[in-house]
Amino acid sequence: MENSAIRLVKKIFIKGTIKSLTGLHIGGSNMGMAIGGADSPVLRDPITNIPYIPGSSLKGKMRSLLEKATGNMYIHGDKADPCNCGKCEVCKIFGVSAQDNSEKPGRLIVRDAFMDKDSVELLEKSSNTDMPYTEVKTEVNIDRITSKANPRQIERVPAGTVFKMELVLDVYDGDDVSDLINIVQKSLNLVQDDYLGGSGTRGYGQVEIKIESISYKDEAIYAGENKALTLEV
C-alpha cells in the first residue's frame, strides 16, 4: 500500500454522565488492604481515594460489544481476536493493531471518568457505606463437589453513583462526522444494555449513559481565531 498523508481537521468532545444502576465493581490492587477489608477492592484514585471508572474499561467494553454487534469479532479456539480490516465501523473508531496496515489511525480517546461532586458529597455523608464511598457485598461460593461454602467480600460503588464522562473523537479530512458520532453512540447504547466492570452476569455493573453536550474545535479554534462550537445533541 502506498503511503498517503492524513490531515486532522477537527476534534469532537462528547461529554455526559455514567450512572451506576446496580453496584459497580472495577477491580483494583489487593496490595495495602487493611485486615478486615474486602477480598476484592475497587480501583481508587491514589490521591483522593475516590473510586473512578478507568477509560480503558469503558473503551474496551465499547469496542468488544461493537465487534459482536457488527460480526467483526473472530474466535480462534478460546481466544477472541480483534478486527483489523481497517474499514468497518469498529476499525473506523478504534483503529487497528500497530503491526497491521491502516489508512487512518484510531479516532477515539476515552478519558477516565471521575465521580461527580454531588455523588462524592452524598457518599461522604452516608452512614450506610461499609468503606469510604463504597459498599461491601458478601458472596458465597459453593464447591459443587464438597458443598463447602467459601465466603468472599466484593467491594462495589453503590447504585445511583454518577461519574463524569468525556470522549474525544478525532476527525480527519474526508470523514463523515455524523457517521462517526452515530457509531460512538451505538457502542455506548450497547454498553447500557450490557455491563461495566466485573460480575455483570450476577447483576453488577448496569449503567445509564447520558450524552449532555457535543462540541468541537477546528483548525481556526486551535489557531486562536474562534471559540469552541457546540453541536446539537
Radius of gyration: 21 Å
Strand residues, percent: 25-35%
Structural class: alpha+beta
> How many structurally independent domains?
1
The counted number of beta strands is 11
Roughly how many Å apart are the termini?
A: 38 Å
State the shape: globular
Summed up, the helix count is 5
The SSE order reads EEHEEHEEHEEEHEHE
User: Which spans have pLDDT < 50 for at least 5 consecutive residues?
Assistant: 31-36
In percent, how helical is the residue content?
A: 10-25%
Mean pLDDT: 85
Taking the sheet with the most strands, its summary is: 7 strands, antiparallel
Summary of the model, kept short:
The protein has 233 residues and is of the alpha+beta class. The chain has five helices and eleven strands, in the order E-E-H-E-E-H-E-E-H-E-E-E-H-E-H-E. The longest helix has 16 residues, at 55-70.
Topology diagram in text:
Blueprint: E1 8-20, E2 52-53, H1 55-70, E3 74-76, E4 79-81, H2 89-94, E5 108-110, E6 113-115, H3 117-125, E7 135-142, E8 149-156, E9 162-172, H4 177-192, E10 207-218, H5 219-222, E11 229-231
Antiparallel strand pairs: 1-9, 1-10, 2-6, 3-4, 5-9, 6-9, 7-8, 10-11
Report on this structure.
- The chain is of the alpha+beta class and 233 residues long.
- The chain has one domain (9-56, 109-231).
- 22% of the residues lie in helices and 30% in strands.
- The protein is built from 5 helices and 11 strands; from the N terminus they run ββαββαββαβββαβαβ.
- The chain has helices at residues 55-70, 89-94, 117-125, 177-192, 219-222; strands at 8-20, 52-53, 74-76, 79-81, 108-110, 113-115, 135-142, 149-156, 162-172, 207-218, 229-231.
- Strands 1, 2, 5, 6, 9, 10 and 11 form a 7-stranded antiparallel β-sheet that branches. Strands 3-4 form a two-stranded antiparallel sheet.
- Strand 3 and strand 4 form a beta hairpin.
- The protein is globular, with a radius of gyration of 21 Å.
- The two termini are 38 Å apart.
